[in-house]
Task: inverse folding
């Protein structure tokens, strides 16, 4: 039956109106989803408290919280491109031995004072001090001088061409010099948030920095940081709605958290797990014995059983995003017990050998890795005894290299490859394991690689570097390490820096 | 009595000094280096030495001890190596938390242990008596960490009745404020701690009461025709509480060091958490300050316990 023209007209009008409202509603919801909401308090649980607000201390949880209160001179994108931060632009000399930094104008510290090049120079002076430079000190060793040219310009001179200069600039946080005396307890930086209150062991309250130089940011009014000493209690708090987000979720809970929460695993390749074998202890004074461990170390099993698939097995200290990465070094050694047996016999231990491996209790996964190593290498005739130590006991042993073998982790291979030698066992001078007997091929490749600017040539050199490292096998790479951040679906805009520091300036709450 | 108290105070002084020296030496003797914690695992030796110099750890241990003791006598317990907070301030912040938790836990313990111990002693073969015995066995056997997680999971997560973690002050003193709404944060941790303590106290009360109920004066009271309830509450119970008070005092002294496991599970920023983190990081001044505080607390609590004996048992008099 045909509709009358009257009814047809009204049907058409109604249909058009309905379509209009549907499309408008979709557009509004899409726009709302893309437009961050201003305000709110993010309640963040962490797997431990920070040690202090010392911007030069990257240990424990300090590094992950750096970007909340501090800025650096430059920042890296996840594609390893350098971008301006407190330095707006720069001029690098062709010989790589100096750089002129042009600072952003009008940037204020949390105490209201404007940041100038004198402040940045003072930070360099502190970073270059052995007593106060902490983790940044090692990165400033090639700096010869820092000269203030004017209120917003300074020039850094290097003793040798320094292709890794931007790594230092991306890791040196700028602190108001008048706050140096109290740097552990107070954070006077230029970051998107400032510290309102810190009760050690209980909470930190960060409040929005109203003078932040990036206009419109941050979106949040406050961040409530709550440290947990028990990660199970932390996960329970997230699941029961007491927390919006957690950092440092245990690997075993990843599959559980994936169901109801969003996960972020940070920048790939920032950290990697390692096994160090000291050539100063038997049987690791024999290269064949060290190589045998490369074959009985079951990286896949560790990645699956200990890391629950969050860190891929690898033998390369460089991630795929690094120009020094080469596919052939990604899994250079395969799991092969027969090969391990041959090598341990070639080392003179046909009847088997006993050895000790250490792990630090602050990182439970290291002890679990040791268990897997013990179980697999026993089949090859290497009987490992596991020794678990707490951090205060383990750190000095690491520093003095008084271990026969230990699980650990390292970083700095994710940016400029020359930075991997910041780690003590990779050091090319005063190496704590080798002393002056560092394998020549390794040392030559690393020395040349850190002091030339040509990328292609450097790539070749780092190929030789990795070949030597894999051949000598004193620092075995096991798997990549990813921190796990879990958050409710209402938390939007979260990201990390390439150093896995939390970027909370663009986080907003969709609730 | 005054003379007795003064004598106990004077006797405490050498105890405190010797304990402080022992803990000082032990901390420096155990493996581990706070400078290493601050400097980090990849710290080169020359940098580590510079950090040790900055922290004053390059001096001989006896010099360090004398400096620390001299300052402690003036009320300065030093500063945390790690975060530079004064130890006295950290103690001032965490002590009220531990006191609140301890008070609530002991309240639960006493409320539970009295009826449980009574029933177990007076009617051991009844249903209630047998149940009371089972309760005390379970309370002693169940680990605190397991019970804590279960309580948080069931009452906090599943039922949503109570918070699974966190803490807010119930009593504040400057200005004075009573915040009863914050008691909800202490319910689960107090139950977690209180169950274990109540089991211990109930056991002691039961055995002490069983012994007292066979005494001659109790037989006389029954022979006089007094009701059983009066015999127990007015005659037997008071004497049987002496053992309970002793155990209570010891437990209280122990909890002055905080309850590490419960504080970790429920995220309570008390003395236990502070102590544990300080030991882990070899934050010497915090450990020394806390141990000093615990020793003094123990001595004070023991003195109060002895005075309570005199109240409970008129035969006990101090001169």
Result:
């Amino acid at each position: 039956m045909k509709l009358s023209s009257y009814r047809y007209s009204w049907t058409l009008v109604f249909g058009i109106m309905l379509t209009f409202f549907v499309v408008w509603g979709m557009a509004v919801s899409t726009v709302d989803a893309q437009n961050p909401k201003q305000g709110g308090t993010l309640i963040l649980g962490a797997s431990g408290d920070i040690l202090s607000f010392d911007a030069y201390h990257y240990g424990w949880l300090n590094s992950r919280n750096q970007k909340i209160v501090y800025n650096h001179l430059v920042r890296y994108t996840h594609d390893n491109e350098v971008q301006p931060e407190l330095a707006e632009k720069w001029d690098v000399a062709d010989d790589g031995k100096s750089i002129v930094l042009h600072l952003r104008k009008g940037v204020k510290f949390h105490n209201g004072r404007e940041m100038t090049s004198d402040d940045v120079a003072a930070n360099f002076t502190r970073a270059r001090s052995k007593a106060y430079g902490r983790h940044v000190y090692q990165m400033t060793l090639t700096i010869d001088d820092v000269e203030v040219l004017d209120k917003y310009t300074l020039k850094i001179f290097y003793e040798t061409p320094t292709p890794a200069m931007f790594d230092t600039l991306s890791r040196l946080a700028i602190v108001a010099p008048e706050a140096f005396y109290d740097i552990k307890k107070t954070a006077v930086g230029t970051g998107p948030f400032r510290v309102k209150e810190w009760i050690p062991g209980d909470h930190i309250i960060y409040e929005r920095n109203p003078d932040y130089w990036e206009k419109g940011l941050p979106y949040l009014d406050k961040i409530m940081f709550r440290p947990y000493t028990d990660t199970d209690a932390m996960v329970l708090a997230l699941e029961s709605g007491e927390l919006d987000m957690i950092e440092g979720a245990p690997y075993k809970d990843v599959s559980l958290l994936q169901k109801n929460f969003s996960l972020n695993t940070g920048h790939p390749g920032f950290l990697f797990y390692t096994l160090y074998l000291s050539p100063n202890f038997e049987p690791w004074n024999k290269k064949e014995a060290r190589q045998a461990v490369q074959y009985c170390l079951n990286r896949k099993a560790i990645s699956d059983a200990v890391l629950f698939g969050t860190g891929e097995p690898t033998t390369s200290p460089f991630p795929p995003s690094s120009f020094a990465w080469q596919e052939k070094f990604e899994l250079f050694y395969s799991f092969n017990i027969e090969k391990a047996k041959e090598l341990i016999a070639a080392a003179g231990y046909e009847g088997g050998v006993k050895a000790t491996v250490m792990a630090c209790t602050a990182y439970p996964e290291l002890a679990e890795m040791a268990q897997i190593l013990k179980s697999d290498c026993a089949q090859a005739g290497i009987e490992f005894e596991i020794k678990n130590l707490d951090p205060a006991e383990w750190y000095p042993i690491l520093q003095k290299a008084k271990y026969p073998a230990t699980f650990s982790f390292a970083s700095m291979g994710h940016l400029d490859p020359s930075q991997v030698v910041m780690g003590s066992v990779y050091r090319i001078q005063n190496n704590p394991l080798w002393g002056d007997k560092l394998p020549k091929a390794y040392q030559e490749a690393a020395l040349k690689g850190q002091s030339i600017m040509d990328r292609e040539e450097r790539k070749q050199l780092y190929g030789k570097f990795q070949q030597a490292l894999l051949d000598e096998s004193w620092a075995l790479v096991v798997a990549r390490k990813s921190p796990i951040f879990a958050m409710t679906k209402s938390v939007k805009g979260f990201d990390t820096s390439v150093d896995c520091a939390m970027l909370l300036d663009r986080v907003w709450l969709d609730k | 009595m005054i003379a007795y108290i003064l004598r106990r105070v004077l006797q405490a002084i050498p105890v405190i000094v010797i304990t402080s020296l022992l803990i000082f030496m032990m901390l420096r003797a155990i493996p581990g280096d706070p400078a290493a914690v601050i400097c980090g695992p990849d710290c080169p030796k020359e940098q580590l030495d510079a950090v040790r110099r900055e922290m004053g750890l390059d001096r001989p241990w006896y010099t360090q001890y004398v400096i620390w003791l001299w300052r402690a006598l003036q009320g300065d317990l030093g500063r945390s190596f790690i975060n530079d907070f004064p130890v006295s301030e950290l103690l001032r912040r965490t002590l009220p938390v531990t006191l609140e938790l301890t008070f609530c836990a002991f309240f639960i313990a006493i409320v539970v242990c009295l009826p449980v111990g009574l029933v177990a002693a007076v009617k051991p073969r009844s249903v209630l008596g047998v149940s009371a015995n089972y309760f005390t066995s379970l309370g002693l056997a169940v680990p605190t960490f397991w019970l804590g997680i279960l309580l948080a999971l069931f009452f906090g997560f599943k039922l949503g009745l109570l918070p699974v973690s966190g803490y807010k002050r119930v009593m504040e003193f400057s200005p004075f404020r009573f915040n009863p709404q914050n008691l909800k944060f202490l319910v689960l941790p107090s139950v977690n701690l209180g169950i274990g303590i109540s089991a211990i106290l109930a056991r002691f009360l039961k055995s002490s009461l069983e012994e007292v109920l066979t005494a001659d004066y109790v037989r006389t009271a029954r022979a006089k025709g007094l009701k059983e309830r009066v015999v127990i509450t007015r005659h037997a119970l008071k004497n049987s509480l002496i053992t309970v008070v002793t155990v209570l005092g010891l437990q209280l002294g122990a909890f002055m060091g905080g309850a590490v496991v419960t504080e970790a599970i429920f995220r309570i920023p008390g003395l236990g958490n502070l102590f544990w983190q300080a030991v882990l990081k070899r934050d010497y001044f915090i450990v020394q300050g806390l141990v000093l505080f615990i020793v003094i607390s123990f001595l004070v609590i023991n003195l109060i316990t002895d005075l309570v004996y005199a109240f409970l048992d008129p035969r006990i008099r101090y001169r």
